[in-house]
Amino acid sequence: MTLCARVLENLAPWRDAPAWRVGFSGGLDSTVLLHVLASLAQREAIPALSAIYIDHGLQAVAQDWPAHCQQFCARLAVPLHVQRVHVDDGPSLERAAREARYRAFDQQLAEGEALLLAQHRDDQAETLMFRLLRGAGVRGLAAMAVSRPLGAGVLLRPLLNVAQAELREYALAHRLSWIEDPSNADQQYSRNYLRHSVLPALHARWPQALGNIARAAEHLGEASQLLDELAIEDLQRAESFETAAWSAVPSLSLPVLRSLSEPRQRNALRYWLRERTTMPDTAHWASWITLRDAAPDASPVWRLAGGEIHRADERLWWLSGDWLRKPQALSQPIISGQWLALPGNGRVRVEGMLPDGAFYIGYRQGGEVLELPERGRRDLKRLLNEHRVPVFIRTRLPLLMCQGRVCAVANVENLDGCSSKLWRLVWQLPTSELGLS
C-alpha cells in the first residue's frame, strides 16, 4: 500500500470534518504529511486543507523558516497561518515550548476541525522509551494516541504506523526540500540522546526493535483504556451522594474506595484527579494511605500540586482555588429573591419573602446559637455536627442574621428557613475554581 493510500485509510473516520489543519514546522515529517495530503486533495474529496506554523522565537536561525514554509505552501496551493507564541521560562525548555505550541493549536481549531500532526512510528518508540526511563505508569507508557480531543476539535496522528525511513524515501522521491533544525542534533537534550545514540544501537542489534516498541505502546494503550473503564465503573459507585447540599464540591465515598483492592483504589483516584492536578509521584502516594487509615475523628489533608483532598464525614473532598482561602469577614444586607455575591464564596439568596427586619449575611465567629421550634436555643456547632456538615464548609457557611441573632443556616435541612417554609436561605457554592476544566 502506498503512503498516500495508508494516510487516507488512517484518516477515514474523519473524512467529514469541516477542515484538516496540518501542524507544519517545515521539517521532514510535516513536509511529507502536507505534500501527501495536498496530493490527495487533487483526486479525493477531503476536508478543506490548511497549515499552521508555530513560531517559538527561540532560535536566531529560525527567522527564515516561516518564509520557507510560506513558499512551500504556496507551491501546493495550501493556505498557511503563522502563529507567534511566547515560551515560558522553566526547568524544561522542551516542555514549555510544547505547551505553548499546543495552546496555540487549541486556540486555532474551530468546532469539529482536525489538527493533523506528523509524529510517526519512530517517534512513538522514542516516546515510550523516554517515559519508561522516567518511570511512567501504564497510561504514560501508552505514549501517543492516534486521536484525542483538542479544544473544539480533535488531534490526529495519521503517521503512527509509518517509519521515518519511509517518509525520507518519499521526500527524496518527490524531490522535496525541508528544514533541518540544528537543535535536533544537540544531545544535551534527553530525547535527542535517545534518538541519535540509544535507538540506533537498538536497531543495529535488533532491526525490528522500533516496530516492536511501537507495537508495545499500542498494547499498553489498550491496557490503559481498560484501566480507565474500570476506574469509571468504580467511581460511579463512589461518587453517589445522598444529599445535593454540597454536591458542587467533588467528593468520593471512602467506604466504597476501601472496599477495593489497593491497586484499584489508586487507579480510581488517578482517574478522578487526572483533570484536577498533576499526578503525585510514587513515593507521595503514601499520603493516600495515611489519609485513608487516619482515626475516624481525625481531619487529615492530602496536599497535591493543584489542590487538596480533605476527609470528612467518611468522604474525600477535592478543594482548590477559593476553597483553600478563608473567606473575608462579611456583614452584607440581603433582599428577598435577589442573589447576593459573596467574595470568593459563590452567592446566596432568600427564596420566598422575609419578614420585616434588617437582615444580613455573615459567617460563623464561634459561640452562635439558633432558636428551633420545640427545641429552643441550640448551640450552632452542635447542630452542624448533628447534620454532618463537613468541617471545611463550616467556616464559609452563609448565615442569615438579624440584630446579631442567627436566623437560618444556608443549605442545611431544617436550619435553612422558617418553620412555616415561607422562606429559605439557598447558597450556590463556588465552582469556577474547583479545577474541573
Automatic annotation (TrEMBL):
SUPFAM superfamilies: Adenine nucleotide alpha hydrolases-like, MesJ substrate recognition domain-like, PheT/TilS domain
Residue ranges constituting the Lysidine-tRNA(Ile) synthetase C-terminal domain according to the UniProt record: 359-427
Subcellular location: Cytoplasm
Enzymatic class: ligase
Reactions catalysed, as given in the entry: cytidine(34) in tRNA(Ile2) + L-lysine + ATP = lysidine(34) in tRNA(Ile2) + AMP + diphosphate + H(+)
Binding residue positions for ATP: 25-30
GO molecular function, one term: ATP binding
GO cellular component, one term: cytoplasm
Principal subcellular localisation of the protein: cytoplasm
Domain of life, per lineage: Bacteria
One Gene Ontology term from the biological process aspect of the record: tRNA modification
Keywords annotated in UniProt: ATP-binding, Cytoplasm, Ligase, Nucleotide-binding, tRNA processing
CDD domains: TilS_N
EC number: 6.3.4.19
Domains: entry comment: The N-terminal region contains the highly conserved SGGXDS motif, predicted to be a P-loop motif involved in ATP binding.
Family stated for the protein in its record: Belongs to the tRNA(Ile)-lysidine synthase family.
Alphabetical list of PANTHER family matching this protein: TRNA(ILE)-LYSIDINE SYNTHASE-RELATED
NCBIfam families registered for this protein in UniProt: lysidine_TilS_C (TIGR02433), lysidine_TilS_N (TIGR02432)
Function, as annotated: Ligates lysine onto the cytidine present at position 34 of the AUA codon-specific tRNA(Ile) that contains the anticodon CAU, in an ATP-dependent manner. Cytidine is converted to lysidine, thus changing the amino acid specificity of the tRNA from methionine to isoleucine.
HAMAP family to which the protein is assigned, alphabetical: tRNA_Ile_lys_synt
Protein's UniProt name: tRNA(Ile)-lysidine synthase
Organism for this UniProt entry: Pseudomonas marincola
Gene name of the encoded protein: tilS
